[in-house]
Amino acid sequence: MANKIYADAKGALDGLLFDGMTIMAGGFGLCGIPENLIAEIQKSGVKNLTVVSNNAGVDGFGLGVLLNSKQVKKMISSYVGENKEFERQYLSGELELEFNPQGTLAERCRAGGAGIPAFYTKTGVGTLVAEGKETRVFNGQTYVMETGLVSDLSIVKAWKGDAQGNLVYNKTARNFNPMMASAGKVTVAEVEEIVPVGSLNPDDIHTPGIFVQRMIKGAFEKRIEQRTVRKRVPA
Fold it and tell me: Which of 8, 24, 71, 202 is positioned for an S-S bond with 52, CB 3.0–4.6 A?
Protein backbone atom coordinates (compact mmCIF):
# COMPACT_ATOMS: atom_id res chain seq x y z
CA MET A 1 0.00 0.00 0.00
CA ALA A 2 1.38 3.41 -0.97
CA ASN A 3 2.21 5.75 1.87
CA LYS A 4 -0.32 8.60 1.84
CA ILE A 5 1.09 10.50 4.83
CA TYR A 6 3.44 13.39 4.07
CA ALA A 7 5.58 15.36 6.49
CA ASP A 8 4.20 18.78 5.57
CA ALA A 9 1.99 20.74 3.19
CA LYS A 10 4.85 21.54 0.82
CA GLY A 11 5.64 17.87 0.31
CA ALA A 12 1.98 16.92 -0.02
CA LEU A 13 1.46 19.46 -2.82
CA ASP A 14 4.72 18.74 -4.62
CA GLY A 15 4.11 18.20 -8.34
CA LEU A 16 0.38 18.95 -8.15
CA LEU A 17 0.21 22.71 -8.67
CA PHE A 18 0.19 24.51 -12.01
CA ASP A 19 -1.00 27.86 -13.36
CA GLY A 20 -4.62 27.95 -14.50
CA MET A 21 -5.72 24.91 -12.50
CA THR A 22 -9.05 24.42 -10.72
CA ILE A 23 -8.91 23.87 -6.96
CA MET A 24 -11.78 22.86 -4.70
CA ALA A 25 -11.33 24.02 -1.10
CA GLY A 26 -13.55 22.48 1.56
CA GLY A 27 -15.03 24.16 4.60
CA PHE A 28 -17.94 26.32 5.67
CA GLY A 29 -17.06 29.89 6.53
CA LEU A 30 -13.83 29.44 8.46
CA CYS A 31 -14.96 26.09 9.86
CA GLY A 32 -13.20 23.04 8.47
CA ILE A 33 -10.95 24.89 6.03
CA PRO A 34 -7.57 23.43 4.96
CA GLU A 35 -5.53 26.26 6.49
CA ASN A 36 -2.10 24.71 5.99
CA LEU A 37 -2.63 23.73 2.36
CA ILE A 38 -4.05 27.13 1.47
CA ALA A 39 -0.99 28.80 3.01
CA GLU A 40 1.36 26.57 1.01
CA ILE A 41 -0.50 27.27 -2.24
CA GLN A 42 0.00 30.95 -1.55
CA LYS A 43 3.73 30.41 -0.98
CA SER A 44 4.04 28.43 -4.23
CA GLY A 45 3.09 31.46 -6.33
CA VAL A 46 0.82 29.44 -8.63
CA LYS A 47 -1.58 31.82 -10.38
CA ASN A 48 -4.70 32.21 -12.55
CA LEU A 49 -6.54 29.79 -10.29
CA THR A 50 -10.21 28.89 -10.47
CA VAL A 51 -11.27 28.15 -6.90
CA VAL A 52 -14.46 26.31 -5.99
CA SER A 53 -15.44 27.04 -2.41
CA ASN A 54 -18.54 27.85 -0.42
CA ASN A 55 -17.01 31.20 0.47
CA ALA A 56 -13.83 33.17 -0.11
CA GLY A 57 -12.47 33.30 3.42
CA VAL A 58 -11.94 36.64 5.13
CA ASP A 59 -9.41 39.39 4.58
CA GLY A 60 -6.00 37.94 5.33
CA PHE A 61 -7.10 34.42 6.31
CA GLY A 62 -8.33 31.29 4.59
CA LEU A 63 -8.78 31.78 0.87
CA GLY A 64 -8.45 35.49 1.53
CA VAL A 65 -4.66 35.10 1.41
CA LEU A 66 -4.88 33.90 -2.20
CA LEU A 67 -7.04 36.89 -3.09
CA ASN A 68 -4.58 39.26 -1.43
CA SER A 69 -1.74 37.84 -3.52
CA LYS A 70 -3.83 38.03 -6.72
CA GLN A 71 -3.48 34.30 -7.43
CA VAL A 72 -7.20 33.70 -8.02
CA LYS A 73 -8.71 34.43 -11.43
CA LYS A 74 -12.21 33.07 -10.80
CA MET A 75 -14.32 32.03 -7.81
CA ILE A 76 -17.20 29.56 -7.98
CA SER A 77 -18.96 30.26 -4.69
CA SER A 78 -22.25 30.73 -2.88
CA TYR A 79 -21.37 33.25 -0.15
CA VAL A 80 -18.67 35.92 -0.33
CA GLY A 81 -19.96 38.60 2.02
CA GLU A 82 -17.12 38.57 4.57
CA ASN A 83 -14.24 39.60 2.32
CA LYS A 84 -13.69 43.26 1.40
CA GLU A 85 -10.79 42.45 -0.92
CA PHE A 86 -13.03 40.02 -2.80
CA GLU A 87 -15.60 42.78 -3.17
CA ARG A 88 -12.98 45.25 -4.40
CA GLN A 89 -11.53 42.86 -6.98
CA TYR A 90 -14.93 41.79 -8.26
CA LEU A 91 -16.33 45.31 -8.61
CA SER A 92 -13.16 46.47 -10.36
CA GLY A 93 -13.31 43.59 -12.86
CA GLU A 94 -10.14 41.91 -11.59
CA LEU A 95 -11.96 38.78 -10.44
CA GLU A 96 -14.55 36.56 -12.15
CA LEU A 97 -17.42 35.19 -10.07
CA GLU A 98 -19.80 32.33 -10.79
CA PHE A 99 -22.49 32.59 -8.14
CA ASN A 100 -24.35 29.45 -7.04
CA PRO A 101 -27.13 28.87 -4.53
CA GLN A 102 -25.51 27.04 -1.64
CA GLY A 103 -27.36 23.75 -2.07
CA THR A 104 -26.74 23.85 -5.83
CA LEU A 105 -23.00 24.29 -5.27
CA ALA A 106 -22.91 21.35 -2.88
CA GLU A 107 -24.82 19.18 -5.35
CA ARG A 108 -22.60 20.22 -8.25
CA CYS A 109 -19.59 19.00 -6.29
CA ARG A 110 -21.35 15.79 -5.22
CA ALA A 111 -22.45 15.14 -8.81
CA GLY A 112 -18.91 15.63 -10.09
CA GLY A 113 -17.59 13.11 -7.59
CA ALA A 114 -20.33 10.63 -8.54
CA GLY A 115 -19.63 10.92 -12.27
CA ILE A 116 -22.91 12.73 -12.95
CA PRO A 117 -22.33 15.36 -15.66
CA ALA A 118 -25.50 17.40 -15.02
CA PHE A 119 -28.76 17.50 -13.09
CA TYR A 120 -31.95 19.56 -12.91
CA THR A 121 -33.08 21.69 -9.97
CA LYS A 122 -35.86 24.22 -9.33
CA THR A 123 -33.51 26.49 -7.39
CA GLY A 124 -32.74 29.63 -9.37
CA VAL A 125 -35.47 29.28 -11.98
CA GLY A 126 -36.60 32.72 -13.13
CA THR A 127 -33.56 34.48 -11.64
CA LEU A 128 -30.13 35.57 -12.86
CA VAL A 129 -28.85 32.15 -11.78
CA ALA A 130 -30.71 30.51 -14.66
CA GLU A 131 -29.62 32.92 -17.40
CA GLY A 132 -28.04 31.11 -20.35
CA LYS A 133 -28.79 27.67 -18.92
CA GLU A 134 -31.02 24.94 -20.29
CA THR A 135 -34.43 24.54 -18.65
CA ARG A 136 -36.94 21.70 -18.86
CA VAL A 137 -40.43 21.06 -17.57
CA PHE A 138 -41.10 18.02 -15.38
CA ASN A 139 -44.60 17.36 -14.05
CA GLY A 140 -45.61 20.89 -14.91
CA GLN A 141 -42.70 22.49 -13.07
CA THR A 142 -39.70 24.25 -14.66
CA TYR A 143 -36.21 23.14 -13.71
CA VAL A 144 -32.80 24.52 -14.63
CA MET A 145 -29.87 22.31 -15.61
CA GLU A 146 -26.68 22.60 -13.57
CA THR A 147 -23.42 20.85 -14.43
CA GLY A 148 -21.33 18.73 -12.10
CA LEU A 149 -17.96 20.09 -10.98
CA VAL A 150 -14.59 18.32 -11.02
CA SER A 151 -11.31 19.85 -9.87
CA ASP A 152 -7.67 19.29 -10.73
CA LEU A 153 -7.02 19.32 -6.98
CA SER A 154 -9.26 19.14 -3.94
CA ILE A 155 -7.94 20.28 -0.57
CA VAL A 156 -9.97 19.28 2.48
CA LYS A 157 -9.71 19.37 6.25
CA ALA A 158 -10.82 16.52 8.52
CA TRP A 159 -10.85 15.77 12.23
CA LYS A 160 -9.27 12.32 12.02
CA GLY A 161 -7.62 10.26 9.29
CA ASP A 162 -5.68 7.02 9.03
CA ALA A 163 -2.77 5.99 6.83
CA GLN A 164 -5.18 4.63 4.20
CA GLY A 165 -6.75 8.08 3.82
CA ASN A 166 -10.07 7.31 5.50
CA LEU A 167 -11.44 10.55 6.95
CA VAL A 168 -13.86 11.61 9.68
CA TYR A 169 -15.08 15.22 9.84
CA ASN A 170 -16.36 17.09 12.87
CA LYS A 171 -19.85 18.59 12.77
CA THR A 172 -20.11 21.64 10.44
CA ALA A 173 -16.90 20.66 8.62
CA ARG A 174 -18.97 17.97 6.86
CA ASN A 175 -20.90 20.57 4.84
CA PHE A 176 -18.58 20.71 1.81
CA ASN A 177 -15.46 18.68 2.56
CA PRO A 178 -16.87 15.18 1.80
CA MET A 179 -18.28 15.96 -1.64
CA MET A 180 -15.23 18.01 -2.63
CA ALA A 181 -12.93 15.19 -1.56
CA SER A 182 -14.69 12.89 -4.02
CA ALA A 183 -14.68 15.41 -6.89
CA GLY A 184 -10.93 16.01 -7.13
CA LYS A 185 -8.70 14.31 -9.68
CA VAL A 186 -6.23 14.41 -6.78
CA THR A 187 -7.30 15.02 -3.18
CA VAL A 188 -5.00 16.17 -0.39
CA ALA A 189 -6.35 16.15 3.16
CA GLU A 190 -5.06 17.77 6.31
CA VAL A 191 -6.22 16.33 9.62
CA GLU A 192 -6.07 17.19 13.29
CA GLU A 193 -5.15 13.66 14.28
CA ILE A 194 -3.69 10.64 12.47
CA VAL A 195 -5.01 7.42 13.97
CA PRO A 196 -3.96 3.77 13.45
CA VAL A 197 -5.52 1.87 10.57
CA GLY A 198 -8.50 -0.08 11.87
CA SER A 199 -9.26 2.28 14.75
CA LEU A 200 -12.00 4.11 12.84
CA ASN A 201 -15.40 2.43 12.89
CA PRO A 202 -16.23 1.79 9.22
CA ASP A 203 -19.75 3.12 9.85
CA ASP A 204 -18.28 6.43 11.03
CA ILE A 205 -16.01 7.09 8.03
CA HIS A 206 -17.27 10.04 5.99
CA THR A 207 -14.71 9.94 3.15
CA PRO A 208 -13.32 6.52 2.16
CA GLY A 209 -9.58 6.42 1.56
CA ILE A 210 -10.03 5.58 -2.12
CA PHE A 211 -10.77 9.29 -2.69
CA VAL A 212 -7.67 10.56 -0.84
CA GLN A 213 -4.19 10.40 -2.36
CA ARG A 214 -2.15 12.43 0.17
CA MET A 215 -2.54 13.52 3.78
CA ILE A 216 -0.77 15.63 6.41
CA LYS A 217 -1.23 16.34 10.09
CA GLY A 218 -1.82 20.07 10.37
CA ALA A 219 -1.66 22.74 13.03
CA PHE A 220 -4.78 24.89 13.09
CA GLU A 221 -5.60 28.41 14.19
CA LYS A 222 -9.38 27.89 13.92
CA ARG A 223 -10.43 31.51 13.73
CA ILE A 224 -14.02 32.56 14.33
CA GLU A 225 -15.53 34.27 11.31
CA GLN A 226 -17.87 36.54 13.25
CA ARG A 227 -17.54 36.71 17.01
CA THR A 228 -20.80 37.79 18.62
CA VAL A 229 -21.37 38.17 22.36
CA ARG A 230 -24.17 39.28 24.61
CA LYS A 231 -24.28 40.49 28.16
CA ARG A 232 -24.73 37.78 30.73
CA VAL A 233 -28.23 37.91 32.23
CA PRO A 234 -28.19 37.64 36.03
CA ALA A 235 -29.72 34.41 37.27
Answer: 24
